[in-house]
Structure formats: structure tokens, C-alpha cells
Write a structure and sequence with these properties.
This protein is mainly α. It has ten helices and no strands. The chain has one domain.
Length: 184
């Protein structure tokens, strides 16, 4: 039985494009430190190609860690978070929850690069929500709330459930729930 964090292939393809947008919005923070390292940018391109049906999930699952390893090429926390955002976008082919990871790492990267971290994170999340289509919203609403599932990246002990990442995802999920309630 698949994890509730997986999403079906159609929905993963939908959220992969949004995740790529989130990662691309901050990839410059990585590229300023490591201009010759193309791994995060390549992960974003692959996430977009997967979203268009040009790449299959199996191939992307095998390559999903490449961009994450690029984080070691950076020294600033914001550049590391930007590389991890791209890696999460590439990971959507494996599990839909990684779309929220791409958004959360992008918000973290933006916050760490700003003088007022809290405002920058909130501005980034507002931007992410503003570019989200209704089909992406519907797909993301299928994911369990962060910290509530027993396993996986959104699970109580998962990589995305705590700290800045968990807070960003909670903010996004709360907005999705509020938006859905207004439409009813």
C-alpha cells in the first residue's frame, strides 16, 4: 500500500512543476556561491520535464539525490537550503510530499538570506501560494498534515516536520485548508 504522502503519478506531475517554480525562485542563492555547479539547476529542469511527462518516475527516483549532494559545494546556510529545495523538487517523482519540501526549503533559503528572516519567509510563502494553480492546490490537499503521519518526510519524525521547514509547511497547508473552506 503506498504512503499517503506519495500521491498518484498524475498528481505528482502536477505538483512537480510548482515545486520546480519554488526551487527556481531561490536557486540564485546557490549559484552565487557555486556558479559552476549545475546540479540544482539540472534538478529543476528535470522536475519540469517530469511534470510534462518527458521523464519517467523510475529514472528520476534513481537521480533524486544528485542535487542534494550539491549542498556540500556551498558554505552559507541560504545556499545550502536553495540546493536542497532543488533536490526536493527532483524528489517529487518519488513522493508528492517533496513538493512541500521544495517550497519549505525555498522559504528557508529566502529567510536565511534576508535581514528580517520572518518577513522574508512569509513573503516567500505568499509568493508560492500566489503561483499555485487550483489543480496543484487540490493535489496538495490530499497530503496528510505535517507531523500527523507515522512515517515519511511529513511524518512526526520526518525531515520536513520540524523547525523552519515544518513551520513553512504548516503555513502552506493552513492556507490550502482555509482556501478550500472559502470555496465551499
Amino acid at each position: 500500500m503506498p504512503s499517503p504522502q506519495s500521491l498518484d503519478d498524475t498528481n505528482r506531475r502536477l505538483v512537480a512543476a510548482w515545486a520546480a517554480d519554488c526551487a527556481e525562485h531561490v536557486v540564485d542563492l546557490f549559484e552565487l556561491e557555486a556558479p559552476d555547479d549545475e546540479r540544482p539547476r539540472d534538478a529543476i529542469v528535470r522536475a519540469r520535464a517530469y511534470s510534462r511527462g518527458e521523464l519517467d518516475a523510475a529514472g528520476e527516483i534513481r537521480r533524486r539525490f544528485v542535487a542534494g549532494r550539491a549542498a556540500s559545494a556551498a558554505s552559507s546556510p541560504s545556499a545550502i537550503a536553495a540546493a536542497r529545495s532543488a533536490a526536493q523538487a527532483a524528489g517529487v517523482a518519488h513522493m508528492g510530499a517533496h513538493a512541500l519540501g521544495a517550497a519549505a526549503y525555498a522559504a528557508k533559503a529566502r529567510g536565511l538570506s534576508a535581514a528580517n528572516e520572518g518577513d522574508a519567509i512569509e513573503d516567500e510563502i505568499r509568493w508560492q501560494l500566489s503561483i499555485m494553480s487550483e489543480p496543484v492546490r487540490a493535489a496538495l490537499c490530499q497530503l496528510p498534515p505535517v507531523g500527523k503521519d507515522s512515517a515519511g518526510p511529513l511524518g512526526a519524525g520526518g525531515l520536513l516536520a520540524t523547525g523552519i521547514l515544518g513551520s513553512a509547511i504548516r503555513r502552506i497547508q493552513e492556507s490550502l485548508t482555509t482556501s478550500a473552506a472559502r470555496k465551499d
